[in-house]
Amino acid sequence: MDAVARPPLPRWHLPMPRSGWAALGGFCLVAFLVVPALHLLAPAGSALHLSDYAVTLGGKVMCYAIVALALDLVWGYGGILSLGHGLFFALGGYAFGMYLMRAIGREGVYQSDLPDFMVFLDWKSLPWYWRGTEHAPWALALVVLAPALVALVFGWFAFRSRIRGVYFSIITQALTLAAMLLFFRNETGFGGNNGFTDFKRILGHSITSPATRVALFALTAAALAGSLLLCRWLVSSRYGRVLTAIRDAEPRVRSLGYEPARYKLFAWTSSAALCGVAGALYVPQVGIINPSEMSPAASIEIAVWVAVGGRGTLVGPVLGAALVNLAKSWFTVAFPAFWNVFLGLLFIAVTLFLPGGLVGLWRRLTRRAEAKA
């Protein structure tokens, strides 16, 4: 009697192919060896020299890639479209920005132990939520805890109420809009519309020195690689299979005895924590954090990165974030008045003609070439 052939495993359960490990290894080689060598060792006038702008731009794009990857975890695999992930990104940035502001010390304009904006606004002492932020370990803990706690509380009420689809997306956008308006107020103690800027030191080192820039770049690359591996492990596990089943048929999963709210809440909170880490790495490299990072438009742009790259693929959002933000850097210089038009047309084109994003297009072309061969 012939043995019955087993059905193939779904693609999210397959181990990472050799090409994926090779690409990840090449990325680490460039991030940890090539970029530092070209920035620190190549002469400033040489064609091989990487400028401060190029290193900063690369670090910023990788921070955005981590945010896109975090959104893909909940949208691509959990079916939860969030239009408020900019809030979690900004909370992580503000948490680490508080440490950077305290590290300025008396080097500020007013030579006070208080941040300059507090002296200007006639604050007499630090608010209670600023306590301990002069210590890097506590600030790093806040980077993860602040966005994760907000996501946990919001998600607990939303998922237990079975809010899904467009209603959930609208609520997340309302949440980030409310937070942006709150942080714009001077009374909240976060710098108002100017936010935090003019940083001097990080862990005792000058924040503008070439060695510090390269170290932050390498640390961001390590965080991106670690986030990719973590998300790959999650979606390849039993938890990931249940999460994907919830995305495809939530009532059926509930009828089998699973509680979808728990699985959604874990993915949602983990995604927020990843955004917080990205925000903390973003602030010292860019040199500023203000409430505009919480704007609803910023959160919508994150969804565009994921859609362009291909949701539910992990590597797609990373490629989408890199492509869109590099294009933005060029368009805002060459055609500053048309960037938003280009972004809107790009999203419409992807929705109509490339529902699987760039990764989906690549897979179709590969299958077509294999069929012809």
Secondary structure elements and pairings:
Elements: H1 18-41, H2 52-75, H3 85-104, H4 116-120, H5 136-160, H6 165-184, E1 196-197, E2 201-202, E3 205-206, H7 210-236, H8 238-255, H9 260-286, E4 288-289, H10 296-309, H11 315-334, H12 339-353, H13 357-372
Antiparallel strand pairs: 1-4, 2-3
Helix pairs in contact: 1-7, 2-7, 2-9, 2-10, 2-11, 3-5, 3-9, 5-9, 7-8, 7-9, 8-9, 10-11, 10-12, 10-13
Task: Note down, in words, how this protein is organized.
This protein is mostly helical. Helices cover 68% and strands 2% of the residues. It has helices spanning 18-41, 52-75, 85-104, 116-120, 136-160, 165-184, 210-236, 238-255, 260-286, 296-309, 315-334, 339-353, 357-372; strands at residues 196-197, 201-202, 205-206, 288-289. Helix 2 (52-75) runs parallel beside helix 7 (210-236), helix 3 packs antiparallel against helix 5 (136-160) and helix 7 packs across helix 8. It is globular, with a radius of gyration of 22 Å. The two termini are 34 Å apart.
Main β sheet profile: 2 strands, antiparallel
Q: Pairing-aware structural class of the strands and helices?
A: mainly alpha
**Order of strands across the widest beta sheet?**
1-4
Order of helices and strands: HHHHHHEEEHHHEHHHH
Overall pLDDT = 89
Which of globular, elongated, flat, extended, rod-shaped describes the shape?
Answer: globular
